[in-house]
């Protein structure tokens, strides 16, 4: 059971309690075994604790909604996401939303927002459906397969066609191949992204070469798109950005936005879906209700299932903000430079926050919205995921298509354990399932 009292060891000016093992060990656990590490520390030290990681960085974890709200609503000139996301700089570029704060961040958000509002999302529906139908129809029948890989293929296709607006051809084929390689990064390689000097050595050298090759293709696509005369009729995110009357977006900004949407939007959505297929296969009753919802177009129940899975199996375990000056958080006076990290996985499983948190109940999300900062798989505040609506819409389309067509089965009743891939926690065996044509009931 989670501790709900602020730890009495807290004193003004000191960091919350936490393990005293070496920074290297803590960094290793923080990188490769995140969910177990956080759960253990929360049990041992309470709802607010400190992890000490390499580079002299102190990460203060907060797990109570009221403390998480302090972080998400804190002044944006004090709570910087860019510093906490720095590891992504060499890949996403300095114009990435993930690496901006303050006015430049607001300006970039304003550039991108029109491509993610309700009207824009409705416009992406047909293309998402077309891609989901083609992918789901190609799944093998009656044999075990890791569905995560197939979901990654469809979410990548959605990014390439709906976000980048690419059409079939040699450039798309090459980009598809390169991006699959760039995204498939283990936790230790990911850690190496923080040290540009490593780019001289394999596997970082190979990673950089793939990224540069993808950049060349993207810049060629951007140049062609700028010359196109039918942009207003195209509707994809890249064309919308180029066609915008509001602001001029440079080629480098476009490149950084596209790569950011790709790294933030492709693997995350496929991982969330992989966990949902895994849970549907393990829970025949929920699956039957979800099939019924898919048949009757009840998107709210389908998304209720998906959101409940995202509560119990969050794709990203935490977000971070680095303090630009001393600040009070969770009753502690924290020094400038501290990273404060709302721990998504822990607030989602806190019995003081969610009734019977270990029980799987999609109804929690049907006909009601969770209270502020209690369900945060997409983070929060000014940096809240810009693609949350996009991802949920895409997920509803893929789930609806699969559930109308198939019964989904597991081969082993035991749940797959989570394992780390860059910032995400994926099902270790790729979410092994078997699908068979739906039997009438
Ligand atoms: C299940 C799918 C997804 C999950 C779990 C997820 C999760 C997150 C999280 C936790 C953040 C950080 C928020 C914060 O710091 O408070 C984030 C930011 C972001 N996400 Fe997502 N995301 C998903 C899908 C997408 C999609 C589909 C896109 C775009 C196509 C996208 C684009 C972004 C961008 C651009 C940011 C940076 C926002 C900013 O800093 O202003 N994400 N996402």
Automatic annotation (TrEMBL):
<protein>
    <recommendedName>
        <fullName>Cytochrome P450</fullName>
    </recommendedName>
</protein>
<dbReference type="GO" id="GO:0004497">
    <property type="term" value="F:monooxygenase activity"/>
</dbReference>
<keyword id="KW-0560">Oxidoreductase</keyword>
<dbReference type="Pfam" id="PF00067">
    <property type="entry name" value="p450"/>
</dbReference>
<dbReference type="GO" id="GO:0016705">
    <property type="term" value="F:oxidoreductase activity, acting on paired donors, with incorporation or reduction of molecular oxygen"/>
</dbReference>
<dbReference type="InterPro" id="IPR017972">
    <property type="entry name" value="Cyt_P450_CS"/>
</dbReference>
<keyword id="KW-0479">Metal-binding</keyword>
<dbReference type="InterPro" id="IPR050121">
    <property type="entry name" value="Cytochrome_P450_monoxygenase"/>
</dbReference>
<dbReference type="InterPro" id="IPR002401">
    <property type="entry name" value="Cyt_P450_E_grp-I"/>
</dbReference>
<dbReference type="InterPro" id="IPR001128">
    <property type="entry name" value="Cyt_P450"/>
</dbReference>
<feature type="binding site" description="axial binding residue">
    <location>
        <position position="385"/>
    </location>
    <ligand>
        <name>heme</name>
    </ligand>
</feature>
<comment type="similarity">
    <text>Belongs to the cytochrome P450 family.</text>
</comment>
<keyword id="KW-0349">Heme</keyword>
<dbReference type="GO" id="GO:0020037">
    <property type="term" value="F:heme binding"/>
</dbReference>
<dbReference type="GO" id="GO:0005506">
    <property type="term" value="F:iron ion binding"/>
</dbReference>
<keyword id="KW-0503">Monooxygenase</keyword>
<dbReference type="InterPro" id="IPR036396">
    <property type="entry name" value="Cyt_P450_sf"/>
</dbReference>
<keyword id="KW-0408">Iron</keyword>
């Amino acid at each position: 059971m989670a501790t709900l009292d602020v730890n009495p060891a807290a004193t003004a000016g000191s960091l919350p309690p936490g393990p005293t093992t070496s920074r290297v060990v803590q960094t290793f656990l923080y990188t490769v075994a995140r969910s177990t590490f956080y759960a253990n520390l929360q049990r041992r030290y309470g709802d607010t604790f400190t992890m000490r990681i390499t580079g002299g960085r102190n990460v203060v974890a907060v797990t109570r909604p009221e403390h998480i709200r302090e972080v998400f609503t804190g002044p944006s000139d004090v709570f910087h996401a860019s510093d906490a996301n720095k590891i992504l700089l060499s890949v996403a570029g300095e114009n990435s939303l993930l690496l901006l704060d303050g006015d430049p961040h607001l300006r970039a958000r304003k550039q991108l927002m029109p491509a993610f509002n309700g009207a824009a999302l409705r416009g992406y529906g047909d293309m998402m459906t077309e891609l989901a139908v083609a992918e789901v129809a190609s799944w093998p029948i009656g044999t075990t397969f890791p569905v995560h890989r197939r979901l990654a293929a469809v979410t990548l296709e959605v990014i390439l066609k709906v976000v980048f607006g690419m059409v079939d051809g040699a450039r798309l084929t090459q980009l598809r191949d390169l991006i699959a390689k760039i995204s498939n990064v283990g936790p230790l390689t990911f850690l190496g992204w923080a040290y540009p000097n490593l780019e001289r050595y394999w596997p970082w050298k190979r990673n950089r070469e793939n990224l540069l090759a993808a950049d060349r293709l993207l810049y060629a696509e951007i140049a062609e798109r700028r010359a196109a005369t039918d942009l207003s009729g195209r509707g994809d995110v890249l064309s919308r950005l180029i066609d915008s009357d509001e602001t001029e977006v440079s080629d480098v900004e476009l490149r950084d936005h596209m790569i950011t949407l790709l790294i933030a939007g492709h693997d995350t959505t496929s991982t969330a879906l992989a966990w949902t297929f895994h849970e549907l296969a393990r829970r025949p009753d929920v699956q039957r209700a979800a099939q019924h919802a898919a048949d009757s177009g009840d998107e709210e129940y389908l998304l209720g299932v998906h959101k409940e899975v995202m509560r119990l199996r969050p794709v990203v375990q935490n977000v971070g903000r680095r303090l630009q000056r001393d600040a009070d958080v969770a009753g502690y006076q924290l020094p400038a430079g501290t990273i404060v990290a709302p721990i998504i996985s822990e607030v989602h499983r806190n019995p003081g926050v969610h009734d019977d948190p270990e029980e799987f109940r999609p109804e929690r999300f049907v006909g009601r919205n969770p209270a502020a900062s209690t369900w945060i798989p997409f983070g929060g505040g000014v940096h809240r995921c810009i693609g949350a609506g996009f991802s949920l819409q895409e997920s509803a389309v893929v789930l609806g298509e699969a559930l109308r067509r198939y019964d989904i089965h597991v081969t082993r009743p035991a749940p797959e354990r989570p394992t780390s891939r860059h910032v995400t926690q994926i099902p270790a065996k790729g979410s092994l399932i078997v699908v068979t044509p739906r039997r009438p009931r």
